[in-house]
User: Fold this.
Amino acid sequence: MTYNSTLPKVFVYLLTTIETLYQTRVPLEVQNRKNVHLATSDCLVIACYLWGVLHFSETLKAKYQLAQSLFPNFLEYSRFVRRCNALLPSIQVIRQALVFKEVEGMSVSIIDSFPIPLCQPIRNFRSKVLGDYANVGYNATKGQYFYGCKCHALVSEPGYVIDYTITPASMADSSMTEEVLSQFGTPTVLGDMGYLGQSLHDRLELKGIDLITPVRKNMKQKKIPFPLTFLKRR
Assistant:
């Protein structure tokens, strides 16, 4: 398929990649569903959605406006919303395929967490936002308690988000390690002191994952065969 020469090259690359993954990864019942032969293809809708994600567009409205800047005759906003909602499972499948492509051959990744506060600290024990899911946790970096959630993320060395999960704020980093590494664990994973624990390290070692963390003063220092790419850095 040929594309308008005025389209950004990155968008064209994204769209052609999605077209390939759509044909090979998305279930046939989705590809061959009723009314699938529309003027605006599923691949174009998905590409516009992900294009908005790449540009940090936080809402569907912002993603739609970005798509309109590329395609003045793009479909109506209400239809774009319905198509995106219907295609969310396909978007997730394509995202996973893109992640697999990114991590292929990768030997080192980094695991960490960060707080998602939902109110000011003074309201920690009064806030009811997302009350069925959020709670009070401790932010060791700032040395203060917060009410909200916590994001546990696995990223590549350049900063590409490989996988993540959201939990209540009180959830310990070490308790979510195996879930975060379940799909895209690399041979070597770097973590901070929140991931200490011999039993955790032993379980990951059985899965072929070497979790490298700092140690406490009273712990025996482990000799680390540090990755060559890190040793070359200044």
